[in-house]
Write a sequence for this structure.
């Protein structure tokens, strides 16, 4: 093998991997346009990618995964810690020694007849104090091309790494895409990830969920920082001052839409702007001034295509117009472009659906795009990408926002009383499931900080880490913590809040609270806006003041049920849930009685 580095741990690991996997060829990915273009051409020649219309979608490609391999697989995802307790009750656990052996047995010789690609990548701008380096080996060009969009790839990463041992070992082997032998395993103590028998994004782009959340959350706990499943957005007021918010939502709550929000007309006219720093993951640490700062460790968006349209997210739509890889969407054969449900009302009539079968776009047929079909788009394409996107120091965080999909219970917005109470609010986050995910519809799934599938260690210990972080920040400088619910429904089952760009009306109240510019009402669950402090100008026809009052009400009976649900959840999490959170629960219980 060509040695590209003197790094002893990297070279030893590669030697060992090569001996095990037995590739025909080995290619170091340097991220140069020349190399990437050659890989695209190769993938097109084998059918792994299809080149789309160069005029309408320059540098864009279509990929189809195996039909059994279309989403993250939580039941096949394991945290491999020395003891089961370290992984905690929410994670699937496997013994690390046995699991390495099992995975090696599955992967052994599987690169025979294939090429091993070695991808040096940085999560975060190369050289930023926030950033971390990973090496992923893979036998998939699709993975290489996605990683090149989603992370920073190239020789400068190897240079930044030097001879350090602080890098994440990532092994990806397609093997046979056998769903019975599919495993996505994280070894937090070893900085290692091992993924076999999948070719789908979240399972194989190891920088994303596996590293930037599961491994990084563990690193953060050990090293005093945080890796969170949060978007980061900046709100610039007419005076040109920008405040940053980090927000966590479970899947199917419109996170990417919020991250790229377009201000309502009135706000636009007044001079408000919204800037996207990140749509999925935030790495957070204390800056020299004692405030918390966040970076987006990613370099692109791996977004859900269906439902993305001119109204829901024009910025995302603009982002996928060039240099994008589409996965499992419908292929319009008339003009060699792509389509998905919810893009517009004109499905192509001469098309292939996501599996590649002929499709005529009739509404009563199967969907054209898979519900979890995706786009992989460079962040720099986004019209509202923040000027601070590449800032190695990150952006200062004014507020953390938690949210979920609750038809009745949670008000439009409330603020926690203090940091610990905010951690409590995040810890009990829950969302009613939608058709797209997790079996039954409308069931409340607890998803603490939207991190349920992504905490690389014990959940109660993760809460404790949040509490500890709070102890190190001056309360004056700590981000304020809020909860929002865009999904409240009236008794007829209609959504009460218009959502999308109008969510800025709620974020405006949040920012004003952070600046001490607006009062609030204390309620049993926390601080709530006075209805007149949420700006309804321009949407008076859609949202009456009475409706707003309803959205800001606390139904004590429902909250009593919620308390029972939280008690049950904390019991499931066991005795690592910190006392501070039990105290918050006791206070909530007393308040609503
Ligand atoms: C994602 C997810 O793909 O959270 O970002 O599922
Ligand atoms: Mn996500």
């Amino acid at each position: 093998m060509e040695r590209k580095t003197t790094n002893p741990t990297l070279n030893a690991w590669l030697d060992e991997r090569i001996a095990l996997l037995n590739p025909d060829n080995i290619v170091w990915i340097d991220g140069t346009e020349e190399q990437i273009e050659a890989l695209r051409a190769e993938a097109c020649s084998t059918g792994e990618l299809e080149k789309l219309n160069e005029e309408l979608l320059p540098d864009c490609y279509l990929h189809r995964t195996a039909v059994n391999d279309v989403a993250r697989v939580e039941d096949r995802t394991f945290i491999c810690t020395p003891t089961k307790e370290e992984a905690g009750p929410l994670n699937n656990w496997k013994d690390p020694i046995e699991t390495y052996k099992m995975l090696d047995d599955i992967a052994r010789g599987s690169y025979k007849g294939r090429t091993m690609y070695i991808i040096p990548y940085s999560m975060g701008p190369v050289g930023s104090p926030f950033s971390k380096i990973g090496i992923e080996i893979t036998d998939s060009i699709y993975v290489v091309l996605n990683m090149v969009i989603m992370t920073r790839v190239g020789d400068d990463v190897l240079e930044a790494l030097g001879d350090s041992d602080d890098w994440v070992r990532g092994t990806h082997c397609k093997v046979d895409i056998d769903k019975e032998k599919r495993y996505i395993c994280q070894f937090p103590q070893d900085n290692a990830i091992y993924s076999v028998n999948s070719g789908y994004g979240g399972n194989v782009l190891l920088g994303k969920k596996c590293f930037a959340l599961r491994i990084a959350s563990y690193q953060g706990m050990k090293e005093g920082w945080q890796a969170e499943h949060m978007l980061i957005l900046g709100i610039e007021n007419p005076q040109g001052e920008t405040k940053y918010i980090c927000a966590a939502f479970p899947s199917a709550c419109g996170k990417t839409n919020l991250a790229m929000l377009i201000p309502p007309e009135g706000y636009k006219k007044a001079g408000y702007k919204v800037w996207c720093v990140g749509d999925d993951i935030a790495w957070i640490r204390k800056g020299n001034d004692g405030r918390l700062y966040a970076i987006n460790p990613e370099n692109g968006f791996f977004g859900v295509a269906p439902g993305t349209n001119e109204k829901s997210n024009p910025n995302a739509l603009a982002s996928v117009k060039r240099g994008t890889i589409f996965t499992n969407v419908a292929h319009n054969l008339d003009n060699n472009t792509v389509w998905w449900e919810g893009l517009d009302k004109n499905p192509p009539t001469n098309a292939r659906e996501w599996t590649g079968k002929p499709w005529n776009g009739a509404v009563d047929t199967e969907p054209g795009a898979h519900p979890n079909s995706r786009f992989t788009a460079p962040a720099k394409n986004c019209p509202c990408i923040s000027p601070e996107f590449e800032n190695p120091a990150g952006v200062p965080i004014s507020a953390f926002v938690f949210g979920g999909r609750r038809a009745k219970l949670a008000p439009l917005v409330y603020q926690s009383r203090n940091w610990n109470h905010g951690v409590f609010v995040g810890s009990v986050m829950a969302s009613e499931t939608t058709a797209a995910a997790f079996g039954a519809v409308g069931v409340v799934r607890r998803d603490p900080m939207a991190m349920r599938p992504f905490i690389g260690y014990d959940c109660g210990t993760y809460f404790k880490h949040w509490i500890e972080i709070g102890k190190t920040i001056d309360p004056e400088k700590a981000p304020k913590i809020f909860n929002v619910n865009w999904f409240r429904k009236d008794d007829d089952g209609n959504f009460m809040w218009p959502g999308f760009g109008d969510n800025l009306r709620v974020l405006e109240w949040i920012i004003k609270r952070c600046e001490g510019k607006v009062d609030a009402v204390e309620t049993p669950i926390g601080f709530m806006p006075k209805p007149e402090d949420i700006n309804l100008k321009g949407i008076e026809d859609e949202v009456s003041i009475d409706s707003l009052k309803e959205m800001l009400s606390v139904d004590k009976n429902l909250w009593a049920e919620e308390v029972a649900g939280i008690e049950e959840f904390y019991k499931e999490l066991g005795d690592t849930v910190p006392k501070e959170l039990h105290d918050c629960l006791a206070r909530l219980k007393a308040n609503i009685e």
Q: What stands out?
A: The pocket of oxalic acid (ligand 1) is lined by residues 72, 202, 251, 280 (CB under 6 Å). The radius of gyration is 24 Å.
